[in-house]
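Let us work through a complete example step by step.
Step 1: write down the sequence.
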Amino acid sequence: MSLALIIGLGIQGNKRSIILKRLKIKYLTLDPLNKDADYKNIKEISNKILNEISHIFLCTPYKERLNYLKFFKKQKVKILVEKPLINDEMEKNFYLKNKKLISNKIYCAYNHRFEDCIIKLKKIIQSNKLGKLYFCNMIYGNGTAKNVRNSIWKNRNKGVVMDLMPHLLDLSKYIFKKIPNSIGKANKKKFENESIDFFEINSSIKSLNISFNVSYLYWKNYFKIFVVGSKGYLKLEGLPKWGRTNLIYGKRKLPSGKPNIKNYWFNGKDFTWSMEIKNFIKNQFTKLDLKKEIEIYNFIKKC
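Step 2: predict the structure and record it as tokens.
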């Protein structure tokens, strides 16, 4: 790895730069509005420097991404794109048209796949300890409604649906190997913003019922995955980035006794961003699952 380039120095871009600095990875920054960036536009970067760049972190607002993707698609670089990968039909068509060219060079960032607590939850489900799966409830919320309201590009379109739902849909694919294709009636509200700041919907994967809830109105950060099957249940509350996290496995006691409980605890430290970046820099990410990304886009489009 020669050199990384961060494009966009907003919240995500600055997080990436902090981690790259911590990992002692050489990088440059580009942002047309941030005075601290090394470059204001791509034309300022010399051909010599462009040829040294091996990894790109694309952290711009959605509408700006396509121009950079078109510029770098034929260059020998790997590109990390902030979720969701597809924002509109133009991006979708770009990926479909250039599928062979970009499938091994594009990585879409979903850091929660690197959570120890979620990896453990998945392993328990795969071990069949829950038996036949009946239903699952996923919630992801924070209290950033005011911040979003003050953001020119975030306080528009589908709001929290575009921001947090991709994480839950990706986790559905990661944990259950599928993204729901059956969507019920959605409940969406704009309590404090011009964009959606509260959203919930029921859906299903075959016989498994899944409900999703995302919001900017949880004044205390909140994350939950609750899965119930014929042999027991799992309840994960919280994420290590907010503190010590608990995963509960309850083994069903027939006919109606109190479940046997086992607690798993995970330390309050967020290492997922570092792990994801290390994976990306070392080119250890898998081939782009464009089918999954289109399914996420189509799901959100229907919401």
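Step 3: interpret the result. The CA atoms of residues 61 and 153 lie 7 Å apart.
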